[in-house]
Design a protein that fits this description.
Blueprint (H helix, E strand, L loop, with lengths): L9 H26 L12 H20 L17 H22 L4 H22 L19 H10 L1 H14 L8 H27 L4 H8 L1 H8 L1 H18 L8 H73 L1
Helix pairs in contact: 1-2, 1-3, 1-10, 1-11, 2-10, 3-4, 4-7, 5-6, 6-7, 10-11
InterPro entries: O2_lipid_transport_reg
Organism: Aromia moschata
Protein name: Acyltransferase 3 domain-containing protein
């Protein structure tokens, strides 16, 4: 946007946020309605009160925080659909990014300084919070990454930068999570500041490699049609999967003696049922609502682009007229 000179005004910000809100919220709302009504009546078990009824009560109490995407701050202990904390955080960061883009768009000469300040501030805030509150480290298991570059040296750099950085962070976490190891405040602060950002940088390098048509088998897997189909239902699967896990835990009537085989069969069963439920949720709600959203948003998008184009044209005409007057003035002088 900065390179092409396009405007990022208030109307564009509102349009972008509404577009995202309409795309995400209906599916979340359907799942909240299900967990606050029908879920509690779908079975009984020794742990049903702890795993299912508690979720039922939480959803009836704090459902509105999910719809406003503030559930990671309000009613944190009584959170409904606890997995949606990430959607709330991501939505808040999305809104913040729109504000930053708007400020950078109005001050293109200071755009680099604005972006750099945002990155540095994010590192300082994460590290400071972890240091002063003495937080333990956190590591998430993200999917493996893909390739970058065309020459062989680029392939080597891709492996080092993508997988290398991610594995490096995981190995550090493995050491710090050892029962005999106690991390200091400074170590935790450094990990909180740089760990997730280095991991994200590795993922970004991997994704960039895919866009450059590099990646061999990894790129083939990512471009496989079956994977793309699963990708379309991933959001609905993400929203519904915890309800299935809660039901399984609530039904359990005897202790589970964990070994590799039981862990494998349980995981495969949870994944299969989650994708099956996600398919139903996606076909019945997410896709129809997405189609309606495109119809509703099309007119809004057209109006916003028209207004932005008209403003750009007026600005260009003003500059031309101003430059013409300056030339006439110089000639007279």
């Amino acid at each position: 946007m900065l390179e092409t000179g396009k405007r990022v005004n208030l109307k564009y910000m509102i349009f972008a946020f509404i577009n995202r809100y309409i795309r995400l919220t209906p599916t979340v709302a359907v799942m909240i309605a299900f967990e606050s009504t029908w879920l509690v009546h779908m079975g009984k078990g020794p742990q049903w009160e702890d795993f299912v009824v508690r979720e039922y009560k939480n959803c009836r109490q704090s459902w509105w925080t999910n719809l406003l995407y503030i559930n990671n701050y309000v009613y944190k202990k009584e959170m409904c659909l606890h997995q949606t904390w990430y959607i709330a955080a991501d939505t808040q960061l999305f809104a913040l990014s729109l504000i930053i883009l708007t400020v950078a768009g109005k001050n293109p000469s200071r755009a680099k300084a604005i972006f750099a300040s945002g990155i540095i501030l994010g590192l300082i805030v994460q590290g400071g919070v972890a240091f002063f509150r003495n937080y333990d480290i956190i590591i998430r298991q993200y999917p493996d990454l893909i390739l970058w570059g065309i020459p062989k040296i680029h392939h080597i750099l891709w492996w080092l930068l993508s997988f290398g950085m991610c594995i490096f962070i995981i190995l550090i976490a493995a050491k710090m999570y050892a029962p005999s190891y106690h991390s200091s405040r400074l170590e935790s602060a450094l990990y909180w500041s740089f760990g997730k950002n280095i991991f994200a940088l590795g993922i970004a390098v991997g994704i960039f490699g895919i866009t450059q048509k590099i990646g061999w088998f990894a790129r083939w897997v990512c471009e496989w049609q079956a994977i793309q189909i699963l990708g379309r239902i991933t959001f609905s699967t993400y929203i519904i999967h915890t309800a299935l896990i809660r039901m399984r835990a609530g039904y359990m009537r005897s202790p589970l003696f964990l070994n590799d085989f039981i862990l494998l069969t349980t995981t495969v069963g949870d994944v299969a049922l989650s994708y099956l439920g996600g398919t139903v949720l996606c076909l019945c709600f997410e896709m129809p609502i997405s189609a309606l959203q495109k119809l509703m948003v099309f007119d809004m998008d057209t109006k916003v682009k028209k207004e932005v184009t008209e403003k750009d044209m007026k600005t260009m005409d003003f500059k031309k007229n101003t430059s013409g007057k300056e030339q006439i003035l110089c000639t007279n002088v």
